[in-house]
Design brief:
chaperone; binds adenosine-5'-triphosphate; 19% strand; ATP-dependent protein folding chaperone; 23 strands; 21 helices; Ribosomal Protein S5, domain 2; Chaperone protein HtpG; nucleotide-binding; 654 residues
Length: 654
Amino acid sequence: MGSVETLEFQAETRQLLRLVIHSIYSNKDIFLRELISNASDALDKLRLESLIDSGLAGIDTADLCILLEVDDEARTLTVRDNGIGMTRDDLVELIGTIAKSGTAGLLEKIKESKDAATAESLIGQFGVGFYSAFMVADRVTVRTRRVGTEDGTQWESDGEGTYELQAVDGLPVGTSVTLHLKPADSEDGLADYLSPAKIRQIVKQYSDFIRWPIRMASERTDSAGAGSEGTDAQSADPQDAAAGGVDTLNSMKALWARPRSEVTQEEYDEFYQQISHDWLAPAATVHMRAEGTFEYEALLFIPSQAPFDLFSRESRRSGVQLYVKRVFIMDDCEALMPDYLRFVKGVVDAHDLSLNVSRELLQHDRQIHGVRRRLVKKVLGALKDMQSKDAERYAKVWDQFGRALKEGLLEDTDNTEALLELVSVASTHDPEKTTTLRQYVERMKDGQDTVYYLTGETRAMVENSPHMEAFTAKGYEVLILTDPVDEVWVDRVPAFDGRPLQSIAKGQVDLDGSDAADEEADAEKARREEEFAALLSWLTTTLSGQVKEVRLSSRLTTSAACIVGDAHDVTPTLEKMYRAMGQELPPVRRILELNPAHPLVTALRTAHDAGADDPALAETAELVYGGALLAEGGDLADPARFTRLLTERLTRAL
Ligand SMILES: Nc1ncnc2c1ncn2[C@@H]1O[C@H](COP(=O)(O)OP(=O)(O)OP(=O)(O)O)[C@@H](O)[C@H]1O
């Protein structure tokens, strides 16, 4: 053995370890699932290397397996694999540090969480992986040798601040993780992890579908003695009988390859939990088999809860694994799922691909494009299905993944219609419940052919916006869009089911229609236009620095004025977003609309008729414009000046 080197855990790792050791996590059993899953990944990697890398072609992969060893006297449980192994540097990099982005923020949230359940669900999202060993062990020893190297390394730690590294000779290729178990403590959820019965139960529950045999020395002492659960009928390893008392604990069935009718929902859920490390059941399952020229099976899941880093730029990863004829090829296969569906987890097993296939090749493969198109349709179909059959569940899923799906409206024009059917938004129809566009259309008034919406920062701001007045007065429903991404997709999507989408803060609105019965109204309108023409043209000139036009409004009932955009103008929220992102935009000059029935507006006209050169009149114009800007949540260019003008007016009026 070489000399001992002591290293410190990275600060974030230390924090995570402290949380894992000293808190809360009630389901301690999952440590074994995590270690077995790491071992299984290591076996996958070795097999793949042996198949594609001639340098390792001689490696014997005939008996890749995971071995669980119990030592009652030493009170240790060891998870051993003969997989790819790690070098010393791998150990430092992979076990000593956490590379996930957003870790610091999440740790902060966990620390601040008020109750154990919240903290637990946050940790659950995080996936504690290897560190979960410290939930059940007060010391962990890893011994490992990377395939193709001669040097073995031992890593040891009590999970506190540091770990020790030491070179070790004569290790076999692969990794063993030895847990020096804490005493069993049922109050703390610590079972007796030396008990073969307990180990079998955990493996069956969490790791049954692992594709490699998970073996344990049989505890059969005589033909019918204690531990006869060792005769588990599920045992699938033919070597069992001959191996002199070694049992295979898992069934190793590739779930996706079995016919749907033979798989229970429970099996699907467990499989999902294994591949995702989630502890909740998935919200939906898609299992399909494609036959014909390009055969594949796919088993996909829509989770119930979004991962904490769903919107983190750095950790955008697809959740789909690619297999070729049962051989694991890669995680995060982005060629199989578009970015906006990155939350979908699962497995695609393609029969006719080369094991050597690279990400590059996949990105350009025509057949893979076809698979992806089909999978997207299936996933969107599953969501639609959930929406119609289980609205409550769908609402939760939309709450978690709606924002990601809305990204699809920008990225995936092939599926615009399907995505629009899924959109759920707030509306003036119901203060609590959201609506779909389909439901909106079904409620549209006779003669209404447009879907009206208004974007803004909050529901209250949108509801109280002056633009809403005529719509409220006339009983038209308006969609309330407050998610920043809404600003973007509504611009890209011209219509839903043939009905144009229109912002009530843009362009002209004509809620009165133009039927013959309204001829009178039209005449009235023309008369007003005439009456106000001089005022409007004077205002347009006076406010030309701020607006491009001043006109009469048909959308106001109680406010004096509001600001609207032209049909293709950038909205103020979007303008703010662009500027916040550092993008230069030419100043957007919008349109000031006046309510001709409002006393302020009529008084303004009278004053203007009496003499347009009174400087006080220009100040009034400025105040009217500023007030309209504030009402829609906009920012004044010169708030101090606005306040001064207003104060002067108030003082004079008192
Ligand atoms: N038995 C093992 N053999 C080889 N490498 C391993 C083994 N266990 C862990 N590793 C390496 O250490 C890394 C970190 O493991 P850890 O369990 O903390 O996270 P993970 O498996 O990457 O993530 P997660 O558990 O969330 O899926 C692994 O990605 C792997 O590269």
